[in-house]
Amino acid sequence: MRTFSTIIASSTPIGRYLISRLSLRRSHAISVKPQASTPPMAAADASNEESLRRTLAEKQSAVDAQGNAVRALKAAKASKSEIDAAIESLNRLKLEKSSVERELQSVVSGSGGGASVNREAFRQTVFNTLERRLFFIPSFKIYRGVAGLYDYGPPGCAVKSNVLAFWRQHFVLEEDMLEVDCPCVTPEAVLKASGHVEKFTDLMVKDEKMGTCYRADHLLKDFGNEKLEKDLSLSAEKAAELRHLLAVLDDLSAEELGAKIKEYGITAPDTKNPLSDPYPFNLMFQTSIGPSGLIPGYMRPETAQGIFVNFKDLYYYNGNKLPFAAAQIGQAFRNEHFVDPQDKSHAKFSEVANLEFLMFPREEQMSGKSAKRIPLGEAVSKGTSIGKRYARTDELGVPFAITVDSTSSVTIRERDSKDQIRVSLDEAASVIKAVTDGQTKWEDVWSSYPHHSSESADD
Quick one: average pLDDT of 210-218? Predict the structure, then answer.
């Protein structure tokens, strides 16, 4: 984020104004908690939430039973002292229930309810500022525009130019990558072979009366998150079921998504009308190549496709030697490293092999478990995918990321420097508060605790 801030500030005076505005909001940034799984920092909260839901269910049962006892005493015309004692017990149980409800609401809100609202407000503020200062403009605005299409304004073009130069210097030049520049239109045969024609789809549902379309998985995710955050009467078993659903949402078939939508009674958000069964919607823009219109093609769905189809020529250009890396700049950046499957060695891998990263093995994803820290060397040998939470939080401007190391300590990572410190669990909140309130500087905190820089890991 510091690099990107420098890029903007060096591009235009307006960029410096924007950074000053964003800096004012830094202390209000909220840490991201991806909904697809329970992050390590939330593991204790999830366990506590389950315990509180069970306790709340027990208190509700006790209140109901005592309420029935009071009604029975009144029906039996019991003495006033007996009825008063029963009512006093009922009121005491209600107070205990209310106390558990407040504690549960606090845990649920801390697990993402308020964060979602604040994160969206922050995103909208940044969006409005960028648009107002002409970093980007909705395309074809005088003709009412088209959702999702934008033009770069003058400061946006300057930022883009600096980003391109920085990216090319960092990846292509310093890493000696082979750069290619391929056309945006791809023949259908290429994308059939890659599986994009058949599988590059999202499952959609349609408002059966109005025709409005929605992502099926998004509707289920929103429903699950809202129930977990707002329905305090939800049983621990039902809450666990919803969390598992959110964890495996991306792997559900159209039939399974449709069944869940019907099971939970989910309707169109705007009209509450019934929804159709999920159906696949191909995300690629189709076109035709040539004047005859007989050669079907698509706007390329990913920047890497041109790199893959040119592998043989790039391999020849590199002297028929592996490993090598290729890169391309399109509307997004992409670089690919090619290695010999029998010899996956890399000259610089030893420098990072022992670094631990937050990773999310497929087994944990499928079972709804949390991500865990794994040495990079071990992950490569097992084929584990690296979690991208640091990247996501950096994009949103979240100043500090916290990873639970054990039951007694956590690692705090500062966004701009990417430096990390290890502190005891009891000190974590006070350390973060002291820095965000301006009572101390991160550099002073960093020098006071066990620490290391993660720049080598990011490189």
Answer: 90
